[in-house]
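Quick question, first post here. What does this chain look like in 3D?
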Amino acid sequence: MRRDLGLIRKMVLTIEDAPSGWAPHPLDIEGYPRAQVGYHAWLLVDAGLARGQDTTTNDSDGPEAFISSLTWEGHEFADAARDEGRWTKAMGEVQEKGGAVTIAVLTQLLANLMKSAFGL
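> Answer (accepted):
Ran it through. Tokens below.
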């Protein structure tokens, strides 16, 4: 399964919007099958954007995780990715340069666009 940065963004913003600070359960993202969300939850934990537990079993369709909350880095990504215009511009630059980017580079690109908006 390919990593979907749009889904990652939706998941991080959904978790951040939870009033308690705890991730909603189940973490359902409209338009995405449960197995895809589960795999991307596993990726969020693996990347250090969220705290959680690997819940993969022999019966799982693939790696999956239970997310409890975002980490500091997860909140930093949310702040950088929240603005739809900035997200669209960043993803346009990614497509223009070849269509693939690491989460670290994407976060830096979003942060640079944020700095630019503040005249920094």
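The chain has two domains: 5-71, 80-117.
Residues 39 and 62 are 7 Å apart (CA to CA).
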